[in-house]
Structure formats: structure tokens, C-alpha cells
Amino acid sequence: MLNEDVLTYIEKLIPDRPQYVKEIEEYAEQHDVPIMEKSSIEVLLLLLSMQQPKKIVEIGTAIGYSAIRMALKLPNTEIYTVELDEERYHQANLNIKEMGLEKQVHTFHGDALSLSDQLNDYGPFDALFIDATKAKYTKFFGLYEPMLSENGIVYTDNVLFKGTVARDRAELKTRRQRTLVRKLNEYNHWLFTLDNYETTIIPVGDGIAITKRK
């Protein structure tokens, strides 16, 4: 993981975002809503701009921050995004509408594990972005990976969980943290064992895994 000085330096180099995007960032900070870190979203957007996917399915809308950033970066891309939390789902819709992106970003409310059949009707997808309940990452991957196009890529955020995956779990304070880190470790190791995929992890923000067919 990058140290704080390096992260601060990198974030100062990032070009200014549109005013409403900055307001969403401020809202997330004030209301303790987890959104992608500034350095992470820039890496993801660069990777997506190189890939140029026509359709993206996102697991974990939160308040729409990453979906909006992807839509602004990729105006010819359709984004299908799922959020379990009702309050965040409604806030995401407000933010998406405010940006005039409701025809490009399609939101779904509910558990992504239960909505896979419904989302499958909109595939195939060229990119799968997983950024929801970390303990369910393997299940999300298993359900949505078959919906990918031939050259589809899976992007997973938070796979390093602020570096805790590299620490001795006995050092973690709560049982929930230990369970979460164990499941993330299992997911990361599992990604690297997939015969038909290759994976790399970029240690920026909370860590992004990129998984691509061989």
C-alpha cells in the first residue's frame, strides 16, 4: 500500500472534477458513505477508457458516485448498477438524474445475488465491477462472470482493505474484521487460481483486482 504522503501527492495531481461530482464526494464524507478513493477511481477510469466497454454491470451503487464517474468518462457506455440499501439507492437516483445520466445509468434496487436473472437479460457485459459486501465477492463473481462477453474483464475494489489482508488476523480487534479479512484473503487467492483467467492487484486506494480471460 502507498503511504499517506505519496497518496496525498498523487491526489493533488488529479484534475479537478465537475462541481456536482465534488458535492457527491462531500456528501459521502459527511454521511459516512463508502465510495471509491480518488486515486482508485482514476485508475479504474483509465483502465475502462482503454477497454472501451459497451456495457458495464456494477455490484454496489451506493450513492451513484462510481457509476456517474464511469458514465461521464464513457459517454457511449451503458451502466447497469445494483444497490441493496434503499436510502442509498434513492440518493443514487437523485444524483444520476441531477447529472442528466438517467438514460445511460440503469439502477436496480435489491440484493445482487437475487437479481442476477433480471440483470442477465441486459447482458452480455464487457465489464463487471464488484464493489459491495466484501464477504460476498466470490458469490458475486460466480453469478455475474458468466454474463461477460468474450473479452470481458472483472474489476474488484477494496481487495486489500486498507492493508489488513497482509496483517496477522490475530491483530484485528473484532471478530467481524477477522472474518471479513479471511474472506477477502480467500477471494484474492481464489482469483489467482482460476485456470481461464489471469489476475493482478494494483495497490492503490484500497486495492483493485483486475481479472481478465487468458
What does this molecule look like?
Keywords: Magnesium, Metal-binding, Methyltransferase, S-adenosyl-L-methionine, Transferase, tRNA processing. This is tRNA 5-hydroxyuridine methyltransferase. It catalyses: 5-hydroxyuridine(34) in tRNA + S-adenosyl-L-methionine = 5-methoxyuridine(34) in tRNA + S-adenosyl-L-homocysteine + H(+). By secondary structure, the chain is of the alpha/beta class. The chain has one domain: Vaccinia Virus protein VP39 (Rossmann fold). It contains eight helices and seven strands, in the order αααβαβαβαβαβαββ. The protein has helices at 4-13, 19-30, 38-51, 65-73, 86-98, 116-120, 137-144, 175-193, and strands spanning 55-59, 78-83, 105-109, 125-130, 148-157, 197-202, 208-213. It has a seven-stranded mixed sheet with strand order 3-2-1-4-5-7-6, with helices on both faces. Helix 3 (38-51) packs across helix 4 (65-73). The longest helix is centred in the C-terminal third of the chain and has 19 residues, at 175-193. It is globular, with a radius of gyration of 17 Å. It starts with a helix and ends with a strand.
